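Model it.
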Amino acid sequence: MSDTLPDPGTDLDSCAREPIHLLGHVQPYGCLIAVSNQWEVRHVSANLDEMLGLDPEAAIGARLSELLPRDAVHDLRGRVQMIGPDSGPARLYGIDLIGDGPRFDVSVHATGHGYLIEAEHRTRNGNRQEMTLVQPLMARVRRRREIPAMAREAARAVKAMTGFDRVMIYRFHPDDSGEVIAEAASPGLEPFLGLRYPASDIPPQARALYIRNPIRLIMDVDAVPCPVRPALDPEGEPLDLSLSVTRSVSPIHLEYLRNMGVAASMSVSILRDGRLWGLIACHHGAAHYVDYETRSAAELFTQLFAYEIAAVESAAERDQAERARALHGTLPARMSDGATIAREFETIARDIAAVVPCDGIAMWIGGRYLRHGATPSHDEFMGLLGPLRAADDGRAFASDCLTDIHPAGTGFADRAAGLLSLPISQGPGDYLVLFRREQVETVNWAGDPRKAVTQGPNGLRVSPRQSFEAWSETVRGRSAPWRRGEIAAAETLRVALIETVLKIADDSIAERKRAQERQELVIAELNHRMRNVLNLIRSLIAQSRPGARSVAEYVRILDGRVEALARAHDQLTETDWRAASLKGLIETEIDAFLSGKRDRVKLTGADVLLSAEAYATLALVLHEMVTNAAKYGALQDSHGRVEVTLDRRTDGALVIGWRESGGAPVKAPEGRGFGTTVIERSVPFELRGEAELRFALTGVEARFVIPARHVSDAPEAGDAAPAAEAPAQQRLSGRALVVEDNMIIALDGADILTELGCAEAVTANGVGEALRLIESNGFDLALLDVNLGNETSTPVAEALTAHGVPFVLATGYGATEAIAEAFPGAPVIKKPYTKRSLQAGFTRLLSPSADARDPMD
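Modeled.
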């Protein structure tokens, strides 16, 4: 028979499928009787005659009372009455099953169709009382508060109780491999402390039996087992020996023990919360019997030992949970919204790592990736997101080998070899993921963990290892395992996080709803204002016509009035349509029409802020007053002056005085034109104020009263820098490019540039067309609209800069820092622009001394 390592075609699961609870034999140190619920014998072991002097064949079908003494049957029935669903077997020590014969220790447990009774010869004398030793031995364990030290004391105690050569405390790892964490061995034995055993050494069905039947004695690996008769019940099923005390042993396991040099063994399960935490494994170099009462004492000791382990681990878990709960209380304050999470993420990550140790933390929330410490990059995490969603069952998911779920993770194992993923949204989507770096570990296995394949009578089969000499292996690609308490603490944090994320989502939904409502309100208000503006423009068009003596004059009058409204609109926009400065409005009008006569206008009184409604109304009124003074009044010659006074009444109303003097004699107009109507009726009609206009011989005088509800105090202004002298207006020349997505505005801009002196003005409605024109034509200057619908003119500006062509920017948004930074050196004018504002913009562009960054109306 030759041994080989398994190849892919070999069935490695044969031992895992072995029905070790249906072997149909018992070990010869005990005998078995299976009875029905009516206490009729259904099965017996073949050694019944040797143990109890009963003929096995004759016993089958008889009532138990016909085979055993009356007192024995009475005692058995009484103990059966005490058996609960999870109470384990009933135990009777020193019972007489023959009648004035040797004593027996008996185990009774319920089966599906009756009861299974097992008897062993009582070999102990009356002086030994192992049960009384359990508490003193456990007291020694309790004095140790760390699990390795507790395990050493437990191993010594069980060795003293049972007499085995070697007793080991064997702890399972999360991958189901096991490690010897403590050992008590007789002198001269090779130590097994620290050795690891692969998960395959204990197949799944054996693990399940360790939980159901926590103690197991193999007295002699070479003993011949005794068969159970009959082998099958009337339904053709073998007797289930899962809870049997004397159940025989799998041949594969016996071979395993022989290969280790073990002649007898005993194992006692260490259970925590119904799960297999570890084993107390006992080995002996020769056949070794431990009586049932001593085994029961060892089982009780192990149960108490398990309680002590649970207490120590639970204390650590409670401490960790308490820190998690404390963090639960502080996290929401740092995660009030998405912006706060991003800003505070480093602090959040450090706080979480203090509760659940890790090397890095990443969060995927709302399509945004945040990370701190040793974590995958954004692109690497995108590849991991799919496996995380596949593993998402709404609870914390932990793995110390990330490549098990994401093979591509080998590329970043140095930063993230293990992960603990916390879903933090109602459905698969958002995650907080804790990462641990690769922990390169040298594992000392008890022999090569790979099982050999041998040729047997039924073909290839997996055989137990032949050698158990320490076999070292370097394990890579794994992190430190995530402990039970760490996962529980992470789950506590997950609950806090999901509550916070859901609150953010609810707040976001509410905010979106409020934003939608605000948007609808803004649209309605914009629609209302646009209708008002259009109606106002229509009225200006209609009312400006009667006073004009020519088309050119009509255009000039209309253009001036529309421009006055635009300037007022711009100033209101700069204050977000809050109250704006009246002095600023007056000075803007003076600068627009009287820049050369500014020193002849005297403005006195404290500045005030006007409501948006009053501001727009006074913009037209002041425009008419300024233009009339320039055309017909005190400012039409070189001597007249205008004095404007601002005075607050005690009731808070504002009185605006206008007085012209020093000009030509004034004569009242024969009729009332539109301009006069605006001056006299706008304030009373729209603001419920007062307006008075007098045409005195020495000059026009006017008085306006603005109600207090439209007026508020202006903040005190600091020392203003002296105004720079306006550069002389320049005449344009050469070919011009106008880039504008609105055809009417583009044609208007081209006409204005032609009027200002350009030989030709070419229009383009988008970036693509503009770039083609720049490449195929030579231009001397350009006018660019910043926002071209779904694109911006940035590429055009860059192309013009590359060709050395100067340009002016036009925007309906007013001057912004973004525009100034994107196009340094390019003047910015506001839309709607006029011939005057375009000329001023290009004058600044072509004048080296001008500051192009100052926005112009």
